[in-house]
């Protein structure tokens, strides 16, 4: 794209001459990230005052100039490369902690704030922020949310999206919206998380903070093989144990890290760093179980850090893994796939076979408790043969993830690097919905364009979504109504009764328990079942979920109305039927998923107006859990975001909801 002299003058008048750069060095310095993607912008804009961010977006939108937000640029997916040229908006200067409220458990921060800086300041107050990406001393909080990069503590404390309470969000046309998980309508905040800046820009963030645990105990266990190491993780999950962190390394990573940081790692084929926190009595009990499981899998050594110095040394080694591998060759490609935890042993075996086949030097490093692994392939990009082998290997590794019902990204995102492979992971219908979401938020395609959604996916043969007989029957009903333009009122047990002329369409007959998996501690359930019945079924098997105890409606009603926001973060997979009768599916038995727009969060709180949720997958536990609290009924706000999304997904206004006023519901049919 070519930016005119007149447009440059307008930007300089707004930001100042010293904040607008078009010189070759500035363009080159902002034309790359930690991936192999290289695309130079046409202009670089440095935002030095928060008050200038919104007018900058407004000006770029009026001039139809594509823009990409950039801060530390530590991502590995090409998410902040300027594929279409345009403007790089550098927000490194928008850094700072505005307010910390320990009584109410939050900190207000600017998006350019380095994650480690927040951690350091909270630590002085006896608090911490749960997400902990390995690059926390460099990466920013805004970037973490944009990629949903969560780090090692995700297994116990959830991902970044779960730990951000509220954001000020600038839409691609320059409008301000305040997004919260518990606000009326869809969980827009959860949808924006992991969207890689393609839906808009984060202006401010409110992060959840927690009191530091009374006690933390860190263990190092070594194993004779990577297989026995990974099997240990599967076994501890199956026993219902949820450590604070479970990190794994193979022999090459151990050697590289030890040479680089002298972390005190012993020579071994594989190791685990395991960390427990909480009350001392509970830690002692869990530590005994941990050691028992490790010994069962031929653990060679099992030692505990004796003090904080030793503990920090172990973690310094883990955080330095990327830098350590970068010392071995000029270039490093970091993979990022996720599978169900029980699939890790088979997946990693196949990955090692791929690495051997191509003769590549590569280490295996993973957040084992989340099924999220990071193969690090070192090579010389100037060597054509090496470069080709690495690129082929990466593609095959990611396809292995998909073959094991996993995802292309657990926390690094899709960007440009994995965009083509999205057509292998998702059906055409699901990708079409992603495109509609992007169109609703960004009709001019200005916000980080040409990311995430693959080119020409309609012409590619993607996976088909398997529907049970009763869901297929529902789909057929919807298809007939769509063909005849017959509106439907979406109901479950009809606990949110509403008078309308539209024909009811009930999901109450969707009663199947599809799967209860105690290897991964997930349940997949159709949404017509009542919450009370579901809890009884789980309790009979000694299982628990963070569901409300006194909700009288169906599981689908609970999710669609977002009556218990705390439960929404427990949902990791969703299947739904759209108003045009297309089936879509997102997620599964995955603790981390940063591939595409989070449809679990889109349908939660949509009151059936965007699609009928037919099945969800959610986390279950081996120990009693605090029940999710119910909140007062909230109608969907007919705001700009919802209206634009409704228009894209249901332009005929065929799916009605008891949350809407009739005039709002029917406006698209006039």
Search tags:
single chain, 670 residues, alpha+beta, Uridine Diphospho-n-acetylenolpyruvylglucosamine Reductase, domain 2, Uridine Diphospho-n-acetylenolpyruvylglucosamine Reductase, domain 3, 8-stranded antiparallel sheet, 5-stranded antiparallel sheet, 33% helix, 20% strand, disordered C terminus
Number of strands: 27
Terminus-to-terminus distance: 39 Å
Rg from Cα: 24 Å
Q: Shape, please?
A: globular
Alpha-beta classification: alpha+beta
Question: Per CATH, which architecture of the domain at 469-669?
Answer: 2-Layer Sandwich
Give the helix proportion (percent range).
Answer: 25-40%
The percent range for strand residues is 15-25%
Runs in which pLDDT lies below 50 for 5 or more consecutive residues are 661-670
How would you describe this structure to a colleague?
Strands 12, 13, 14, 15, 16, 17, 18 and 19 form an eight-stranded antiparallel beta sheet that branches. Strands 5-6-10-8-9 form a five-stranded antiparallel beta sheet. A five-stranded antiparallel beta sheet has the order 22-23-26-24-25. The chain is α+β, with helices and mostly antiparallel strands and 670 residues long. It is globular, with a radius of gyration of 24 Å. Residues 661-670 have low confidence and may be disordered. Helix 8 (226-238) runs antiparallel to helix 13 (344-357), helix 13 packs antiparallel against helix 14 (384-403) and helix 16 packs antiparallel against helix 22 (640-649). Strand 5 and strand 6 (106-109) form a beta hairpin. Among the domains are: 5-90, 2-Layer Sandwich (Uridine Diphospho-n-acetylenolpyruvylglucosamine Reductase, domain 2), CATH 3.30.43; 97-211, Uridine Diphospho-n-acetylenolpyruvylglucosamine Reductase, domain 3; 469-669, Uridine Diphospho-n-acetylenolpyruvylglucosamine Reductase, domain 3 (2-Layer Sandwich), CATH 3.30.465. The protein is built from 23 helices and 27 strands.
């Amino acid at each position: 794209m070519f930016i005119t002299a007149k447009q440059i003058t307008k930007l300089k008048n707004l930001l100042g001459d010293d904040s607008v750069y078009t010189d070759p060095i500035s363009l080159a310095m902002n034309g790359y990230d930690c991936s192999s993607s290289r695309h130079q912008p046409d202009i670089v804009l440095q935002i030095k005052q928060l008050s200038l961010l919104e007018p900058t977006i407004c000006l770029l939108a009026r001039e139809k100039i594509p823009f990409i937000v950039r801060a530390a640029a530590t991502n590995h997916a090409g998410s902040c490369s300027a594929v279409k040229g345009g403007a790089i908006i550098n927000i490194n200067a928008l850094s700072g902690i505005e307010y910390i409220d320990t009584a109410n458990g939050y900190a207000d921060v600017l998006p350019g704030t380095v994650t480690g800086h927040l951690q350091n300041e909270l630590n002085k107050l006896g608090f911490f922020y749960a997400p902990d990406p390995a690059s926390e001393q460099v990466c920013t909080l805004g970037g973490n949310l944009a990629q949903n990069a969560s780090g090692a503590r995700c297994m116990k404390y959830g991902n970044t999206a779960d730990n951000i309470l509220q954001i000020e969000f600038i839409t691609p046309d320059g409008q301000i919206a305040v997004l919260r998980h518990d606000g009326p309508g869809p969980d827009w905040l959860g949808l924006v998380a992991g969207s890689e800046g393609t839906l808009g820009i984060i202006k401010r963030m409110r992060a959840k903070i927690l009191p530091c645990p009374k006690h933390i105990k860190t263990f190092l266990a070594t194993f004779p093989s990577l297989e026995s190491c990974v099997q240990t993780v599967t076994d501890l999950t199956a026993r219902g144990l949820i450590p604070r962190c479970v990190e794994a390394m193979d022999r090459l990573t151990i050697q590289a890290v030890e040479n680089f940081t002298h972390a005190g790692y012993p020579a071994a084929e594989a190791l685990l760093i395991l960390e427990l926190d909480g009350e001392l009595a509970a830690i002692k009990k869990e530590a005994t179980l941990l050691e028992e499981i490790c010994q069962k899998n031929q653990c060679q050594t099992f030692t505990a850090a004796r003090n904080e110095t030793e503990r920090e040394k172990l973690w310094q080694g883990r955080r330095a893994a990327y830098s350590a591998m970068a010392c071995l060759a000029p270039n490093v490609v970091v993979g990022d796939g996720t599978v169900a935890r029980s699939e890790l042993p088979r997946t990693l075996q196949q990955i090692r076979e791929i690495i051997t086949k191509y003769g590549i030097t590569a280490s295996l490093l993973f957040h084992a408790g989340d099924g999220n692994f990071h193969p690090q392939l070192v090579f010389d990009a100037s060597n054509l043969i090496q470069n080709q082998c690495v690129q082929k290997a990466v593609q095959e590794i990611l396809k292995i993830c998909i073959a094991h019902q996993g995802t292309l990204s657990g926390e690094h995102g899709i960007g440009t690097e994995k965009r083509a492979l999205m057509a292998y992971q998702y059906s055409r219908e699901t990708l079409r919905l992603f495109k509609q979401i992007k169109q609703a938020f960004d009709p001019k395609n200005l916000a980080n364009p040409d990311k995430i959604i693959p080119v020409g996916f309609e012409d590619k043969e993607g996976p088909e979504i398997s529907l049970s007989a009763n869901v297929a029957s529902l789909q057929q009903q919807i298809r007939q109504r769509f063909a005849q333009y017959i509106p439907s009122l979406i109901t479950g047990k009809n606990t949110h009764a509403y008078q309308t002329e539209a024909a009811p369409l009930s999901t109450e007959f969707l009663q199947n328990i599809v799967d209860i998996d105690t290897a991964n501690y997930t349940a997949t359930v159709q949404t017509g079942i009542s919450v009370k019945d579901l809890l009884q079924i789980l309790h009979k098997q000694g299982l628990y979920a963070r569901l409300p105890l006194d909700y009288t409606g169906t599981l689908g009603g609970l999710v669609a109305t977002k009556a218990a926001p705390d439960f929404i973060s427990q949902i990791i997979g969703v299947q739904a039927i759209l108003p045009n009768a297309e089936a879509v599916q997102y997620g599964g038995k995955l603790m981390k998923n940063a591939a595409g727009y989070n449809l679990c969060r889109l349908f939660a709180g949509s009151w059936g107006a965007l699609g009928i949720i037919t099945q969800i997958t959610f986390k279950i536990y081996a120990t009693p859990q605090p029940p999710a609290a119910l909140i007062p009924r909230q109608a969907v706000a007919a705001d700009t975001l919802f209206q634009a999304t409704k228009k894209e997904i249901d332009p005929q206004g065929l799916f009605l909801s008891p949350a809407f006023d009739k005039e709002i519901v029917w406006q698209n049919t006039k």
